[in-house]
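Sequence design from tokenized structure. All designs in this work follow the same two-part layout: the structure record, then the generated sequence. An example of the structure record is given first.
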């Protein structure tokens, strides 16, 4: 079987060498995206989310550094990192705003989680998942650091320890 595939490939290369070369070049060039996510340095997509308790608009936070965290109550890494987000908000005070956007469909589960875990930061529930879709986020948690001018500066995929000195120093530098 392997010999058959090899012979077939050999015939294609001999008949269409330019096509094969062009295909390989395109394939190899399109695979490498680098280590920097495409959104870094671009304007943060604007959104407004209204849940049963309040309305939050990203544009209203312009002028402050924003830690935009997409999370859900059913997500173990999200639950694990939430205390460090709350602690970070206390450490940085009003210099940085942490906006935690829950993607939970169940309003009761969301509210219960906020009460049980004493979440003392700006949070809103986007059951329609429109805000995270603007960022291309579908795995949680995912967090974006947005500077005072509304540009995305960093992206974190997965849970993080938000009280680490490196992160706090970085946020203070913005």
């Amino acid at each position: 079987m392997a010999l058959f595939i090899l012979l077939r490939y050999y015939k294609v290369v001999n008949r269409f060498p330019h096509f094969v070369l062009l295909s390989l070049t395109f394939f190899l060039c399109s695979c490498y995206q680098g280590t920097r996510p495409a959104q870094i340095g671009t304007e943060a997509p604007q959104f407004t989310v209204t849940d049963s308790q309040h309305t939050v608009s990203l544009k209203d936070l312009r002028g402050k550094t924003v830690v935009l965290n997409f999370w859900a109550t059913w997500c173990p890494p999200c639950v694990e990192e939430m205390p460090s987000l709350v602690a970070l908000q206390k450490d940085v005070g009003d210099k940085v705003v942490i906006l935690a956007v829950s993607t939970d469909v169940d309003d009761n589960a969301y509210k219960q989680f906020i009460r049980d875990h004493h979440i003392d930061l700006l949070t809103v529930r986007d059951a329609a998942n429109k805000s995270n879709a603007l960022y291309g986020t579908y795995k949680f948690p995912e967090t974006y650091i947005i500077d005072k001018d509304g540009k995305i500066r960093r992206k974190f995929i997965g849970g993080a320890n938000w009280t680490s000195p490196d992160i706090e120093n970085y946020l203070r530098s913005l």
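Residues 2-7, 19-35 have pLDDT under 50 and may be disordered. We note this feature because it recurs in several other targets discussed in the main text.
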